Amino acid sequence: MVTFDQFTPNRRNPKFRDCTVEFDIIVNHDAWNLNNYKVRALAIAGYIDGILNLVNENTLNQSAAAHALSGLGLYTFAGCNEFNWDEHLGGYCLTYRAVHFTEDKGSISGNL
């Protein structure tokens, strides 16, 4: 589950708002463990973090991939907390601070 919260004005581009993005990774406790003592929810968290690190790298390097992901900006890791949903489900909540950049301004039409 993905949640966007705590929107604040972006100083560089007033057409965008910076925000907090939370990824709730919910896993059944029966499927919690993977082989070699790995935890399924943490493995998924690692994939999400890897994707966002790639987005950050592309954004900072101004590569073609960064332009394909226009509007995402830079994601800064803010924390990770474990939670228990109920007796069957639990997981981790990854939190990132999303900052949008001025290069995104060109993708905004006057109709918004």
What is the topology?
Layout: E1 2-9, E2 17-28, H1 40-61, H2 64-68, E3 74-84, E4 89-99
Antiparallel strand pairs: 1-2, 2-4, 3-4
Largest sheet: 4 strands, antiparallel
| Shape type | elongated
Strand order of the largest sheet: 1-2-4-3
Distance between the termini: 26 Å
Please identify the structural class as seen in this structure.
alpha+beta
According to DSSP, the number of beta strands is 4
Order of helices and strands: EEHHEE
Number of domains: 1
Helical content class: 10-25%
How many DSSP H or I helices?
2
Percent in strands: 35-45%
Q: Which radius of gyration do the C-alpha atoms yield?
A: 17 Å
Average pLDDT over all residues: 80
Report low-confidence residues grouped into runs of 5 or more. Answer: 63-69
Structure write-up:
The model is unreliable at 63-69 (pLDDT under 50). It is built from two helices and four strands; from the N terminus they run ββααββ. By secondary structure, the protein is of the alpha+beta class. The protein has one domain. The chain has a four-stranded antiparallel beta sheet with strand order 1-2-4-3, covered by helices on one side. Helix content is 24%, strand content 38%.
